[in-house]
Amino acid sequence: MITIIGGGPAGIAAALAAARGGERVRIIEGTPRLGGQYWRHLPEEDEERWVGQEKLHDDFQEGYQLRLEVLRHPNIEILFNTHVWHAEIANDQITLNIVRDSNSSQLSTEALILATGAYDRSLPFPGWDIPGVMTAGAAQSLLKGSYVHAGRRVVVAGTGPFLMPVASGLLNDGVAVVGLFEANRISRWIPFTYVVLANFSKVLLARKYMRDFSVHKVKFKRGHAVVRANAGPDGVLRSVTVAKVDRKFKVKMATEREILCDALAISWGFTPDMSIAHNLGIEQHLDVNDGSVVVVVDECQQTSVNQVFAAGEVTGIGGSELAMTEGEIAGMTSARTLGAAWSVEEEEHFKGLVKKRAAQRRFARALSQVYGVQANWMEWLTPETLICRCEEVSIADIQNAVHNLGATNIRSTKLFTRVGMGLCQGRTCSRSVIEILSKESGVNAEVEDHLSAAKRQIVHPISLGMIANSSSVEDSHHNH
Amino acid sequence: MKKPDAIILGAGIVGAACALQLTNAGLRVLVIDRGAIASGTTGSGEGNILVSDKEPGAELTLAMRSRDAWFELSDDIGGGFELEAKGGLVVARTSEDIQELRALASRQKIAGVEAEEADGEGLRQLEPYLSEEISFGVHYSGDAQCQPMLATAQILRVVRERGGSVLPETNVTGISMKDGAVTGVVTSSGAYSSEIVVNAGGTWAGEIAALAGSFMPIAPRKGFILVTAPLPQLIRHKVYDADYVANVASDDVSIQSSAVVEGTRSGTILIGASRERVGFASNFDVSVLRLLAAQAIALFPVLKNVPLMRAYYGFRPYAPDHLPVIGEDPVVRGLWHAAGHEGAGIGLAPATAELVRAQITGSKSFMDAELFSPARFYFDGQPRMDLIS
Ligand SMILES: Cc1cc2nc3c(=O)[nH]c(=O)nc-3n(C[C@H](O)[C@H](O)[C@H](O)COP(=O)(O)OP(=O)(O)OC[C@H]3O[C@@H](n4cnc5c(N)ncnc54)[C@H](O)[C@@H]3O)c2cc1C
Ligand SMILES: Cc1cc2nc3c(=O)[nH]c(=O)nc-3n(C[C@H](O)[C@H](O)[C@H](O)COP(=O)(O)OP(=O)(O)OC[C@H]3O[C@@H](n4cnc5c(N)ncnc54)[C@H](O)[C@@H]3O)c2cc1C
Q: For the domain that residue B307 is a member of, what is the CATH number?
């Protein structure tokens, strides 16, 4: 039995490949549907309401077909609405603590594939806690997943190729996009021309988006950033302040202007979710391309822990196609470690996948380098700007911890200010805190800091009652 | 850096409190820690300052003085660490436990602890959400609480302002000696000399003693704490079951747990604390979580639907007789120990520091600290190896 955590592109590809190898597969998926962050649609049981979904998705048909294949496969079982809240490993035995329908129980598995993906990266800026400001991912999942518009006049901003599908999705559904701002410059692509040529399909996709923008008369402005969000008398978003920024994101003098809007969808890239990898003591490292913490995998997508594989965004941000290639490799090789033999064709296919993955990784690397978050974003902040919204910790509080209380690393900063200790457990702020700390203390953060910031023992909130009544693996053996 | 009058090893709560006392006595101190400030057990402790959980005796005397010393310390440094005289409530269920708790409370009262029995309506007034099944408790108005990491940092901030120095991220690798007396320490960033060295190394204090060739059997006792999502105030005191006291003093190796439940200023509820002797085992044991959660719900049924947000563990420093170690080393002159406070180091830190100051400066102290002396680990001039578990 192979268990896959996450039913996104990586998990789907892994499940199909492992099942092809003759293994029994179980997918654990926290939401009520397959597809992950990429193929977001209504919950599985709402299929009748799916009309019109194609126009919101780029590869809707492909996703739809794959989804059917997984759902119908006799060897694949899917646990929807089920979260892994903590994973353990002892004496080579993997135990997953899951929560489903208000019940917590344990599952054991022979092999595990981590395909838990990533979440939006946010940067703090003045006004980012005003209602109406949201991540681009949230705006998109409202649209794709529940047909809800983020607002009537929406500004889309931040950095990265993800801004394009979000803006285009909104436009195609009749929303006014009143501004589209990419903070980085197109000239950053120059060193990567060869990569662009090798991935021409992406260029075509980008051109399609650009056509959407020109049809709707939306100007795509590069080298611009939203540096402040402004609330109206009712406390909700009324406008954003946009400015020209230089290569390091420093605001250029006298370029600020205000744009009236009722929603801001903002994206600064993605952060892989390391919680479960951390639970299992899997080796992680810092991705040099975008500074996120990722799982270390070998050629076969095997992690540092026996029988545990990882695929998709957890191994580094790279998009859905790379996630699927990695997933397929993880599915094939995990089945092989459990005894499946590969035919000659499969050996060949594997080699092909390895090549494909290399090319996709090159493209992913180029993307992360072009669309990085540049250091001077911190200058947009005012002393009161909250860094940790859950615990309401401002940048001034962090400066006080460093300069007066002697905080020297992320842990002591947390202990002295509660930054990152609230409901989201630092998912939103810890990368920003690390950057702020490095700047304030003049000492670059150590890898240890990044790892410790990504560590979360309780992966998903679970009530005390569920824990108290949870059954263990032994209990379930007794029951059978 | 000018030569310090005293070097304190360990920037936990005990080291910080000692640094402040010695600074106030006019000594120039240097505090050294291999990690960040409060990165040891202090960084994973709760902030209970308790008189309720101790039998009359030397430790209770220390605890009672320490409780008052915390408030004096707060006045001295200008607060800033969430010190609160919130009071404790100890409850019992079975008639046997009720009897025992009554008896303990009356012994404590004789020793000067404020303890008031409560039942029925009185209990509900103290803690409206307490389980209906609990009919008896004792209210200890002397119990208090603070945020221990912040306390450590604020104390050390004042120590620096008054002329002391703090050197974090610096490992102590040796203690230099001459003719059986300390002359300084060797660290990862150079040597520092001083005739007075205070070992406030917490759970690692035995290793530091060994650097000077001395013997101190301090071992880790692991403890888990659960932290819930922030809530409006549900729980007002620090509330625990009477069998906690028996647990603390237990020699049983296997896991013991008896939930101690309390609210914090940030709205979270802390549920502690299990006690296990498993060395420095770093595994995250879900069965311990299960036990703590069940016990907390037995005290406060409303907690059933409250989400757990995080959980963490730490390693309490304990000596075989569960008493702190305070005093000069029996074989090395100039080496003073202030360690081994087990699950009460936060509470006991300020009074411990007062004893250390009195001993080092040769002044009178508020109690006879003979029972805490590290000489108890020696017999006839020889280390008592039989004490190592
Ligand atoms: C918000 C967002 C929007 C995006 N939109 C686009 C887009 O429009 N176009 C584009 O090209 N790329 C987009 N991307 C990128 C693209 O979605 C990813 O590259 C791709 O989905 C990665 O696939 P994956 O399988 O690695 O992870 P994901 O798609 O993130 O899938 C991970 C799955 O794991 C599940 N999961 C995670 N943790 C647990 C747990 N503990 N227990 C149970 N289940 C768990 C999640 O519910 C999720 O379904 C988006 C990414 C994000 C974060
Ligand atoms: C779960 C849990 C709950 C607790 N709850 C409470 C409570 O509610 N109330 C209470 O009073 N107590 C509580 N405690 C106990 C309390 O946390 C400890 O007794 C106290 O923190 C010990 O403080 P310390 O300064 O002696 O040790 P530490 O805080 O551990 O400080 C020792 C320092 O020495 C440093 N060090 C060690 N070796 C070296 C070396 N070679 N070189 C340099 N530096 C070195 C370490 O890095 C460390 O920072 C709890 C403990 C746990 C684990």
A: 3.30.9.10
Interface residues of chain B, partner chain A, Cβ below 8 Å: 36-39, 43, 149-150, 153-154, 156-157, 160, 166, 168-169, 226, 228-230, 266, 271, 283-284, 286-287, 289-290, 293-294, 296-297, 303-312
| Residue-level length of chain B | 389
Is the residue at B80 inside a domain?
Answer: no
Does residue B303 sit in the same domain as residue B236?
Answer: yes
Cα B25 to ligand 2 centre (Å) = 24
Enumerate chain A positions whose Cβ falls within 8 A of a Cβ in B. 86, 88, 90, 97, 106, 279, 391, 401, 404-409, 411-412, 415-416, 418, 421-423, 425, 456-458, 461-465, 467-468, 470, 472
Cα dist. B291→A87, A346, A465, B88, B275 in Å?
A: 18, 49, 11, 22, 12
Q: What gap in Å lies between CA B319 and CA A112, rounded to an integer?
A: 42
Give dist(CA A166, CA A150) in Å, integer. Answer: 11
Q: Which of A412, A458, A461 faces B39 most closely, judged by CB atoms?
A: A412
Query: Quick check: is B192 in a domain?
Result: yes
Contacts of A279 in chain B (CB under 8 A): 284
Residues A49-107 pLDDT 10s: 666 666 656 677 788 889 889 999 999 999 999 999 999 998 889 999 999 988 999 99
Distance B194 CA to ligand 1 centre (A): 58
ipTM of the complex: 0.90
Return the SS3 of B374.
helix
- pLDDT tens digits, one per residue of B191-215: 999 999 999 999 999 999 999 999 9
Low-confidence ranges of chain A (pLDDT < 50): 476-480
Which CATH number covers residue B372? 3.50.50.60
Question: Per the CB < 8 Å rule, is B307 touching A463?
Answer: yes
Claim to verify: residue B198 and residue B278 sit in the same structural domain: no
B299 domain residue, yes or no = yes
Task: Report the alpha-carbon distance of residue A292 to residue A283 in Å, rounded.
Answer: 14
Distance B146 CA to ligand 1 centre (A): 42
Boundary (domain end) residue, out of B318, B337, B370: B318
Q: Residue B285 is part of which domain span?
A: 88-141+219-318
If asked whether residues B99 and B156 sit together in one domain, one would say no
Query: Mean pLDDT across the stretch B343-367?
Result: 97
Query: Are the beta carbons of A462 and B289 separated by less than 8 Å?
Result: no
Same domain, B155 and B248: no
What's the structural domain count of chain B?
A: 2
Q: Is the CB of B13 under 6 A from ligand 2?
A: yes
Which residue out of B310, B312, B346 would a mutagenesis test of the A interface target, given it has the greatest number of A Cβ atoms within 10 Å? Answer: B310
Q: Find out whether the beta carbon of B11 lies less than 6 Å from any atom of ligand 2.
A: yes
The confidence score (pLDDT) of residue A477 equals 47
| Whether residue B353 sits in one domain with residue B246 | no
Which domains, from first to last, does chain A contain? 2-119+271-368 (3.50.50.60), 124-267 (3.50.50.60), 375-445 (1.10.10.1100)
Considering B302, B318, B334, which residue would you say is the last residue of a domain? B318
The rounded Å distance from CA B344 to ligand 2 centre is 10
Same domain, yes or no: B164 and B228: no
Look at B230 and A422 and tell me if their CB atoms are within 8 Å: yes
Q: Is residue B71 part of a domain?
A: no
Radius of gyration of chain A (CA): 23
